[in-house]
Design a protein that fits this description.
With 252 residues, the chain is mainly β. Helix content is 12%, strand content 40%.
Length: 252
């Protein structure tokens, strides 16, 4: 009788451990990996914990990434897309679902809280453009087959009145989403209107209630990568760059 009870207990603990392992494996699916880093990069996890990231650290769905004032960070995702965060940027990985042989399961959504990034579209964005979204407080962005840079300036960014330039050499600018397209076409959309922004153009959206507009000149956007960062991890796009702002943007 004792042997039977022990055998049953062992089987129970084995099954429980296996279930726990499967649950943890599912919860910790890796969306992307840190491939280049020039300073501190922090991840606020979905459960509220905080983790300091390093090279080859995994990025998970639900992570809020915080690049410190001197930090550039490149993240490569499972679909071969990539983003480079500039200093003083915060972005949340809301959703990432990608299986190469199951396009119906695609889904990639991020929220740019403040700061800026440079993004290169991967397979997911090329085959399912409607399943990619970059949200900001004033709009969302959808893209396909391009490279872009998006910069969002929050409402309280210039309250100090210091007039000092930021890490990119930019002085104070009006709050809102700034967009520059260097390859392809980006479609910006909010509640007030739609706007096509093509290669070489700059777009701006100040809020959801005012239509996006084209700017006649570069409003002060710069995105210079550190010397140890290659232009792109995707060789097919090595000579392309692009930027997108605070709206729904779709590349077509």
């Amino acid at each position: 009788m004792l042997q039977i009870k022990n055998s049953t207990a062992i089987k129970f603990f084995f099954i429980a451990a296996l279930c726990l392992s499967c649950a943890l494996s599912f919860a910790a699916q890796i969306a992307g990996t840190v491939t280049h880093l020039s300073g501190p990069l922090i991840a606020k996890k979905a459960d509220g914990t905080v983790k300091v990231l390093s090279l080859q650290s995994g990025i998970e769905q639900g992570d809020t990434l915080i690049a410190e004032k001197d930090t550039y960070a490149r993240i490569k995702f499972a679909d071969n897309s990539e983003i480079v965060l500039r200093p003083s940027t915060q972005i949340k990985i809301d959703q990432f679902s990608f299986e190469e042989d199951k396009p119906n399961n695609d889904g990639f959504t991020m929220t740019l809280i403040k700061g800026g990034l440079r993004a290169v579209t991967g397979l997911l964005g090329k085959r399912n453009k409607e399943r990619f979204g970059l949200n900001t407080p004033t709009a969302s962005i959808g893209i396909r087959g391009t490279i872009f840079i998006a910069e969002f300036v929050p409402q309280d960014a210039n309250q100090s009145g210091s007039g000092a330039a930021d890490a990119q050499g930019n002085g104070p600018r009006a709050p809102g989403l700034y967009v520059q397209v260097l390859d392809g076409t980006v479609f910006l959309k909010n509640d007030a209107g739609n706007l096509d922004v093509t290669a070489g153009q700059f777009g701006f959206a100040i809020s959801f209630t005012r239509p996006p507009i084209l700017l006649p000149n570069n409003p002060g956007m710069q995105f210079s990568l550190p010397g140890n960062f290659p232009v792109s991890l995707n060789q097919d796009n090595a000579n392309n760059e692009s930027k997108s702002g605070s709206l729904i943007c779709e590349v077509r």
